[in-house]
Amino acid sequence: MKLRHKDLLGLSHLNAEEIELILNTAVPFKKLFTRSIKKVPPLRGKTVAMLFYEPSTRTRTSFELAATRLSADVLSLAVSSSSVQKGESLTDTALNLEAMKVDYIVLRHSVSGAPELLARAVRAHVVNAGDGNHEHPTQGLLDLYTIREKKKKIQGLTVAIIGDILHSRVARSNIWGLTKLGANVRLCGPATLIPPGLKEAFGSNVEVTYNMKEALEGADVVNVLRLQLERQQENLFPSLREYHEFYGLDDKKLSWAKKDCIVMHPGPMNRGVEISSSVADGPQSVILEQVTNGIAVRMAVLYLLAGSTGVTPTGLPQQMATERKAS
Amino acid sequence: MKSRVTWARKETPSPAGSPRRSLLIRGGHVVDPRNKLDEVLDVLIEGQHIQKVARDIKPTKETEVLNAANLVVTPGLIDVHVHLREPGQEEKETIATGTAAAAIGGFTTLACMPNTIPPIDNVSQIQFVMMKAQSEGYVRVFPIGAITRGQDGAELTEIGAMVRAGCVAISDDGKPVANSKLFRRALEYAKTFGLTVIDHCEDPELAKGGVMNEGRLAALLGLKGIPRQAEYIMVSRNIALCELTGGNLHLAHLSTKESVALVRDAKKRGLPITAETCPHYFTLTEDAVTGYNTNAKMNPPLRTEEDRETILAGLADGTIDCIASDHAPHTVAQKSREFDFAPFGIIGLETTLGLVLTHLVHKKVMSLSAAIAALTDAPARALHLQGGHLSPGAPADITLINLKGKHVVETFTSKSRNSPFIGWTLQGKAEATLVGGEIVMRAGRLLKKPDLH
């Protein structure tokens, strides 16, 4: 089986089989990490360009390690975040990279949809490493991988995603992936941080609640999102103290979930805001395992895209297209 | 209704000795909503004016004859919402290229918005646009002046002086007047000159940072939404202020079903309100944004199917009087940017008539006559312009339309090509455009510039 598209722009464009394929492919890659030689040759001679318009430590390092362990050469571009709006356009930068014959462009960008723009402009494989408030597909995949590894399945699980859903690309990729694999998703946060229309967009497998107890009761997984502290200035919530009181995951709130509920966080954490230290470092936390799994999943993505069919995804996200036909 | 702008007064008579040109448009289906004409008739033009419209007019030896058999003959189309970009953004459009695009699209008269760089907010800017249009334009151009200096929403412009110089309406289009007291003063003061105030209805704080319609697609795409309420809160405020002041109000580019209902109610109460919509609001929905298509990014944003259907109903029952293009040219480079960074707006002068005929007339949403009224009589009334009809003595601004001809939207005369309609097949387009008795466009080719002095 192959991936249908040349790019990984979002989990919205993948079907369940493709997601399973990536997760299955990541399993042997993860096994490499316990060996003394962690490198395999499939991408020898290929070049992966890392184009990051936003600061990132974790994702960038993870992609670099993934590419290196597949024997690809990595080219890191230092693009200052101020040049997003000024200076060379994204398309021009991409065409220059294309002229240097890179095989992959891993893009992190502050604007939703930037990877789509790039993917249409170049022949190289474009991997979305997070775009605006849209998607962060490899984070979604590593979260799915972690859940599957711990719970042995995804179908039928209840996953609570807590926090700033409105601005979260991690949330969107998770919702797409989880619903495609048959999990039930609960979104919870203050009403100001839940985007209007999101529930209608996803239908019956996604619930929205503003009450943490409702969100956590019977949950198998809780995924806590990072709160951008500057959101307070936009009057989206009155204070960090109040946010923590209602939505910060502490031991008491976690006790409402199933006993074996696992706790995830995409990092970097604001300890004492969206998550307490005792939960972050506690026995139910799988946060550091997510980081390890991230490399394996990204290796699988780079490896599978090399053999993909070569079409850039377009059109409505699958679920919406089907709904429309039905109505 | 009193016409404030008189072309006849502005035109110098043809020099003594030069023969007055006489042109007969023969055998066309004349649709002149103001005069309730909807039948096969001849139109006789003497010089720059309509002489008469009647059955079987006999040409004299000197009369040039234009055979209009199988064509529809209408008053020249009027677009009251156009961005010509000159001065300041000539890389997008100029008065020369914008009026050329208008002539190709069948328009003979444009009212251009003041959000140029610098804005059209004083007499010399009004004079600049008029002078440029007279020397370089293919069609008539009437400037709309800014409501506030620099479109900053703080101080009124010298509205009276701008009117004397030729300004036909005032608007801070693109930068809606947030201050209700100031908008009240604008409506009141404009009454002094019988001037219409045009508002782009948008609550700026509520819409701030938004790039598409708020709702499920915006939530999925991770784009910041502009709630529909941002429009109709201001429609509602403006109606209230119109009631307070009795000033003439024209509401630009309505996009939501609630706005249509509010305007319908206000009109029932007899308020002096006119309203416009644009072809994209009755042909497209927010789905066009899918894939981050920047040619579907405009303000107000494309809405939902329910809104689109309500806009159609509003056109059908006359709640929405006018159809305007909101022609907003941007360069390919600007529209090839990330969705958040690409500017709002699409071009429309060359697609409006085709979209109206294909999606309103051929689909029987409106009669041909009602659709033509929304492009001629209604905009002329909204801004108190003298044209928009074929009465004897009126300027000989005429559009000849081929209703049947199918064409695919591909190339543009406009300097820009930011259109979501590229690749669409449309049925019906302008065959010829006459301005002041001069044939400025025929069969898609630009001919002579008219003498607009």
Features:
heterodimer, A: 327 residues, 4-stranded parallel sheet, 9 strands, 39% helix, disordered C terminus, B: 453 residues, alpha/beta, 8-stranded parallel sheet, 15 helices, globular
Protein model, in words:
The complex is a heterodimer of chains A (327) and B (453). Chain A has 327 residues and is of the alpha/beta class. Chain A is 39% helix and 14% strand. Chain A is built from 13 helices and 9 strands. Chain A has helices at 16-32, 58-69, 90-99, 114-121, 137-151, 169-180, 198-202, 212-216, 240-247, 251-254, 277-280, 287-306, 318-326, and strands at residues 47-52, 73-78, 104-109, 125-131, 158-162, 184-188, 206-209, 221-224, 262-264. A 5-stranded parallel sheet of chain A has the order 7-6-5-8-9. In chain A, strands 2-1-3-4 form a 4-stranded parallel sheet, with helices on both faces. The radius of gyration of chain A is 19 Å and the shape is globular. Chain A starts with 15 loop residues before the first helix and ends with a helix. By secondary structure, chain B is of the alpha/beta class. Mean pLDDT of chain B is 94; it is low at 5-17.
